[in-house]
Amino acid sequence: SSAKGLFVVKIFKIDTEDEKTKKSIVNSFEREEKISKIVNHENLVSFVLSQKAPDRLSLVFDLCDCSLLD
What we know:
Blueprint: E1 2-13, H1 19-38, E2 47-53, E3 56-64
Antiparallel strand pairs: 1-3, 2-3
């Protein structure tokens, strides 16, 4: 279950001038974004939204109010 009104943000920083590295970061973000949008299971945190800025890409998920040990 999710913590009421709390979220966690996974940030992909784009802090390089190397085009190959930038492309790899963007591809990784897009792959995780695509999977997060389609996966829906009670044992996984829920995807909320994604955001794109020139220097960072972000995935927002519900914050889980339990640990893996619960």
